[in-house]
């Protein structure tokens, strides 16, 4: 609370602080900044964080009954005058720690505090309370906050289920058909549709959430909270297993894991892109407009509508900076880039066709994975 008693008369200020005190007595922690508190208001506090000009700490600790511990601490410093009977401890504290008093005594109260037993006790308490580090509790806390928004997660789940059903209807067993060029195009089309549709859905759905909780998100970001990672992993596993089986891709451990890998990091970079657009724009409405422009460019330079080998040289640089192009490269090259069977309508193998037409090489899949990680 920022100066809850400012602008109030003595009676109103007392009522406010009594309410704050009652809240604290229920076991909650309340932090207040107070400007020139009276004796009664100052006595309502349990602990004090006192800063000098510049933000350095000069006292952090309990006040004690009638500010006894605060008074004892400052009176223990050489040259500090004793407090007079009935004098306001808050006023006395500010007077004896002023810049003029520091200059007169030739001391730095921040250094005095850092060399005190009180400082060492505080550091020991911080170390004790920080063990073990809260790296597991913070993601769980943020996960619970995210799960408190069931409409968002229900809509995402519904979208994934609907898309899986569409895959069942339109792309059933396309991955096992490799006799014609069109079969390869169809299989790549299923990948392209999944990447673009689900990626845009993830980026769009996360924007209003981040916009509403932007301040909290920044705080959690500093604490290393990555709540989206497990959520996206679950989405990838559920969607990937169902769709991989429906499309009929080759069931080998390496190809299946590559499929999950590229789908996971694709959903991740779309989600993070949605967060970024909210962070650099005033609100999520403008973020959605800006995002749409990039979706159109990514769609055009993804390598599906126009393969890399047919993009004009002076525009090919954008293909290399388009994230979807690397996703499709990894998916197609890992699934079809090592197939030696001959195409019926072409004198090339599937591997040669994928390399010559799309520019995808199976031996480059590892490098593609590194590029997506970066």
UniProtKB/TrEMBL annotation:
Location of the ABC transporter family G domain: 35-96
Name the UniProt record assigns to this protein: Pleiotropic drug resistance protein 1
Taxonomic source organism: Sesamum radiatum
GO molecular function, one term: ABC-type transporter activity
InterPro entries: ABC2_TM (IPR013525), ABCG_dom (IPR043926), P-loop_NTPase (IPR027417)
One protein family per Pfam: ABC2_membrane_7
Keywords, sorted A to Z: Membrane, Transmembrane, Transmembrane helix, Transport
Transmembrane as UniProt keyword: yes
Keyword Transmembrane helix: yes
GO cellular-component term (any): plasma membrane
């Amino acid at each position: 609370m920022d100066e809850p008693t400012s602008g109030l008369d003595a009676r109103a200020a007392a009522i406010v602080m009594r309410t704050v005190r009652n809240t604290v007595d229920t076991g909650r922690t309340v932090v207040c900044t107070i400007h020139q508190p009276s004796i009664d208001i100052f006595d309502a506090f349990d602990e004090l964080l006192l800063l000098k000009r510049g933000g350095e700490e000069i006292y952090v600790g309990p006040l004690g009954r009638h500010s006894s511990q605060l008074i004892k601490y400052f009176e223990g410093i050489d040259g500090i005058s004793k407090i007079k009977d009935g004098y306001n401890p808050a006023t006395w504290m500010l007077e004896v720690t002023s810049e003029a008093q520091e200059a007169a005594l030739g001391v730095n109260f921040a250094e005095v505090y850092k060399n005190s037993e009180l400082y060492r006790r505080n550091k020991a308490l911080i170390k004790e309370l920080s063990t073990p580090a809260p790296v597991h509790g913070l993601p769980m806390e943020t996960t619970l906050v995210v799960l408190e928004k069931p409409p968002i997660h229900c809509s995402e789940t519904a979208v994934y289920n609907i898309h899986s059903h569409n895959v069942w209807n339109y792309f059933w067993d396309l991955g096992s058909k490799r006799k014609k060029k069109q079969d390869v195009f169809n299989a790549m089309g299923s990948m392209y549709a999944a990447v673009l549709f689900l990626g845009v859905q993830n980026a769009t759905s996360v924007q209003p959430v981040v916009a509403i909780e932007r301040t909290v998100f920044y705080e959690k970001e500093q604490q290393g909270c990555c709540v989206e990672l497990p959520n996206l992993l679950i989405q990838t596993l559920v969607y990937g297993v169902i769709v991989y089986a429906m499309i009929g891709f080759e069931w080998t451990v390496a190809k299946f894991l590559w499929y999950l890998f590229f789908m996971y990091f694709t959903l991740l970079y779309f989600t993070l892109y949605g967060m970024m657009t909210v962070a650099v724009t005033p609100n999520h409405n403008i973020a959605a407009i800006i995002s749409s422009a990039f979706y159109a460019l990514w769609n055009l330079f993804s390598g599906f509508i126009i393969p890399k080998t047919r993009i004009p040289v002076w525009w090919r640089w954008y293909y290399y900076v388009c994230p979807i192009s690397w996703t499709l490269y990894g998916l197609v090259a890992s699934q079809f880039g090592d197939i030696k069977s001959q195409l019926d309508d072409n004198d090339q193998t599937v591997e040669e066709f994928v390399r010559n037409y799309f520019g995808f090489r199976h031996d480059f899949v590892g490098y593609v994975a590194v590029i997506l990680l970066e």
